Amino acid sequence: MNKALIVLDVQYGITSLKDFTVQLGKIEAVIADFEQQHEPVIYMKHVDYDQEGSSLFYKNVENLEIIMDTGQYPVMEKSKPSAFSNPELRTWLQEHQVEHVFIVGFNMEYCCLFTAITAEHEGFKVTLIEDATGSVNTAETYEMPGLDIQDFVGSILNWSNCIEVLYVDEYKEMYRI
Fold it and tell me: Can you give the pTM of this predicted structure?
């Protein structure tokens, strides 16, 4: 089964808002694993534009840039939470004969969640790597004391029996031995 990694919104406008050192290290480890296996990686970046064509995302064009070297991999833009809001993603996945997508990146409760659900709806096998995701939001954002956003969203997706949710260590054990 051909696999691909979708890296969501690893942009200055998000990663500068909190210390994401741990999550970024795990994202980089998964990217390195896909590279070592010669499996495709695609980066998505969130870009909102106003009616005049100016960027609205964090009000600063530098914030749109991906914080890591994307190398030879494509970077596609999206303006909605789901990466599949850009129809070029599906085309790219089909051209690479991808059947199984792996998802890492930001923000877990929006872009990761919506991309995972849409990918499953589009007929892909989906694995979300929970500890290689993050969110700028907190329990206070949602007025839900004690909320662990990654764990909560990961549990919902896992319980759906439609989307596989793993930690990086589990991913390596299941897919790389």
Answer: 0.91
